[in-house]
Structure formats: C-alpha cells, structure tokens
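Bug: token stream looks shifted between consecutive jobs. Job 1:
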Amino acid sequence: MPLPGGPPSFDRMTDTQDANRPGTPRAARVAVVTGASRGLGRALARALAEDGYRLVVDARNGDALRAAMAGLPAGAVVSALAGDITDPAHRGDLSRAADTLGGPDLLINNAGTLGPSPLPAIADFPLDELRSAFEVNVLALTQLLLPALRERGGAVLSITSDAAVEAYAGWGGYGAVKAALEQACNVLSAEEVAVRVWRVDPGDLRTQMHQDAFPGEDISDRPLPESVVPAFRRLISERMPSGRYRAADLMPAGDQAPGGPAADDRAPAAPGAEPVLGAPGRS
C-alpha cells in the first residue's frame, strides 16, 4: 500500500496480501476495468479510485495505460496490466491480480473494438474483423471471474450501445456484437441470482472510438465521458436490479450530462424493458 498522500501504487501488493490473510477484514472493494487507458474506461477507473476501490485495469497500449493511471487520486492502489483481452494468458493475469488485491467485487467490461474505419456495410464487412470484435466484446473475462464475483455478491457491468437495438447503416458489425453481448448478459442475469448483471448504454460521447466511426468529422459537440460518470456511480452504489439501462436515465437530478434529457423528462426504464430511444446515436 502507498503511504497516505503518495502517488498511485502500481503492482505493489505485498502488504495487500498480508491485509487479506484469513480472518482479516478486507480493506477495500476491488474493481476490474478493461479498456481503461482512455475514454469512458479511464473516467470510470478514476471515479472508482475516488470512491475507494482498488483497481485492476488493462489496455493494449501499456504506455497509454500507465499514463492514464498516473492521473488517479493520490494513494490509489492499482494493478495496471497491458495486454489483449482476447489472450487467455492475459485474462489469467487479470484474474490473479484481482485475487491478490482481495478478490473482485465489480467487473466493468468496457474494452471493445469498432472494427474497420470507415465503417463498412454488412455486405463488405471483413469476417476476420467481425470474429475479433466478438472475441473482444463478449464474456470471456466474465466467465473467468464469475466464481469470485458469485462468492462476493459482486456485479458485472458491460458497456453497450443503442446500435445493439437499432438499425444504423454501417453499424451492422458493431451492432451485432453488442446485441450478442446484451443477450449474453440478459441470460447471465437469469442464471446468476447472487450477481448483479448490468448493461449500460452511455450515449454518444467524445471518445477516440466515436471519432474513428466518423473520420474527419467534428465531434466536439458530444459530451466528454466524465459527464456520464454520475449515472454509473448511482447504478453501482444503489446496486440497482440487473437489467439494461441508459446513462441518461440514471443521471441524478441537477447533474445531467450535456445534451441529455432533463431529470423529469424520462423515468428510468424498468429492468429488462425495451430501451427508450431518442435521436439516433451510437456509443
């Protein structure tokens, strides 16, 4: 553990192991966040660190990941592991890192891939890219962490998109992958009564992935990922029922993301209900 007021601690776990000997109360909750080097993943990792979580984070670019985690609050405990989520060995490393910190209480499946840019039509979508997108987005890491999450009454939070439920030209590959993720989560929530299983559509955000989807276009009117963090904090802290949610519907009153609906415009959708969709948008 770092000294109070010190910088974030990377992969320094000796005294964490001591703190988690049998009979010793666990010092903090542990969250595993994939795709944490930028965008929404980075914003959620920072928020969880501020809320006292110990973190296991990953991204393919190790330098970018460590730079992102260097901006965490002083004293944060984080194990930052560079790697590809489709690699079984890397998934094993993430699982072991979470166990070393005391065991996972929360898994955020944020890592994803858009596929080719510009986005091709279904008729032209490269099948190898589609296979890769399925491997990145669908639930291999969830399967690995599920026994520990079940034991702790933890939660799985997967980032989805309205492209999973609406037909947008050019978004067929990405949308198909997110639809598969959603149905897997839907079934998982029916099978795992001790684990919360959430899927959240964050809405259009100003991220690199969104820019890749619209090459050459100005996306500066989209809100920053940090703007929807209060919605995720509410979902996690209130431990809402398993189901599909939109970040816009979870925003606390007076804390709306730019461009989102007013707090009294829409009530949160009931878990499992069809999403209420506004103007077309992709996450």
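Job 2, same session, no restart:
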Amino acid sequence: MAKSSDNNRRKFIATTLQSVGLTALGGLLWSGYSDEVKASPLVLRPPGALPEEDFLKACIKCGLCAEACVNRDSNRNRDGSKRPGTLKMAKGGDHKMIGTPYFKPVDKRKPTWLERASGKYPDDVLQIDEGVPCYMCDDIPCVPVCPSGALDIASVTNEKGELDINMARMGLAVVHKESCIAFWGIQCDACYRACPLLDEAITLEYAKNERTGKHAFLLPVVHSDVCTGCGLCEKACVTEKPAIFVLPREYATGKAGDHYVKGWDKQDQNRVENAKAIHTRTERSEKEAADYLNMEMEY
C-alpha cells in the first residue's frame, strides 16, 4: 500500500513539473513573438482598416477578407488562370501578428536550392517577386465580409452610399530621390503610368536639366491627399529595389501641429479652431527684452 502511494506521489510531482515547464516554455515563446511583432510596425493592411492599434483589437483573424480577395472574379491572369490574392494571413515568422491580414506590393527573394534543382526556376533567374499589390477592385470584396468592423465599411463609402475604393488610405507612396532614375535625368514614368488614379495621385513635374542644358526632368510627385497606398507604383518600379514604396501613413507623413496655420486657407483655419494656447513663464519672462538681448549668453 505504501509502495503504491509513493508511485502515485512521484507521478503527481512529475506531472506537475512537466506542466510548469511547458507553461513556462509557452510563455517564453509567446513573449518573444510579442516583442518581435511590436518591433515590426510597418505593415500594410486591407482597405478600410482601422488604425493599427484598434485594428489589432477588432480583428478576429477569421480570414474572410483574404478569402474574398483571392476568390474574386477579377483575380485572373490574361490567360484566364487564377493568380495569388493580394491579402495574406500572417503566420509565424512573418514578423506580424499571427492570423491578421496584410499585403506586400513587392516581396523579392532568391530561389532556393530545391526550387532550382526541381527546375521550377532556371539558373538565370536571380530573384523572384512574390509580392502582390492591391488592384483597387470597384466592389472592394474584402471589406463587406468583415464581421467585426476591423475593416470599416463607412470609411470607403461615399456620399451616395456607394463603395468607393478611391477613398481607401492603406498607406502612402514615398519616392527615394537618390535612387529614382527620373531624378538622374533618365526618362521614366513607370510609376506614373501604373497608378490607377492617373495624373491625380502621382503627377509628373517638369524641370530643366541644368547638367545638359537641353533636356528636361520628368519628376514623379506623390499627392498624399489622393494616394490610396495600393502599391501598384511600387510593383511597376524598374529599379532593382523599388525607388518608390508604400509605407503606413503614420510613418510616411509628418504633422505641422496647432502652432502653424495657413493664414490664406479658411479650411486650415478650421483645423486649429479648438487649439489651446500654452503659456510658459520663466524668470526671463519678467524682464524686458532690452534687459537681456544685448547681454552675454547666460548658462
């Protein structure tokens, strides 16, 4: 009887230690992944997505948006074959919150040894691009199917009550002038031609080429009030690494704040109508300007 009791006690202790060990290991793995996600904020979300923090709280990771994207009728190549969908569901190792939808207009990598050995990619293929931009579907199939409101249908609905993909703000295209060949003087309008909002989201600015004195620059200019962040311009860029790329708007734009206003623009006046003045007073505030302006620097 005593021997049986000892065996039961040993089994209980062993089981308890195993449970504690597995719990601790799971906690370490999850905390490590959480840190990885927090360190990777540059994620492009589907049309109508709430601000990132709110989106992560609202998204239930059902995958319906990605399913609607890949299964849409327009998702076909010219030969009629089905092509990959724009939206992907994040998995472990993607450096994004697992199970949430995202897209990458350009995602280049080198073929693996196995892919070359199998003949999938010949030796002269140095890079493959698995990125897919947003093709700006008129019916925006990914948004209406969202059951949680993480994709806000109201944000892509116009005054007529119709879905309007041009209202989407998935990100903002940014041009890196030093690597854009148009700024070198080489004529290129690939991004301009690829933009679905032609001559609105991206325009070409003419400038004289002082180096040659004969030619003109055709410089791409992105207009943040129109750009949807679809990534078609990034996909079309001819440079090895795109010189135009899409970033989340939070990281692609600055903010003037309430201290500066366009005095000639009545709408901008409305922007600061609720601004509050901040008065900072120090010992110097009690003095007259003439008392200290001509004095030596005070430390």
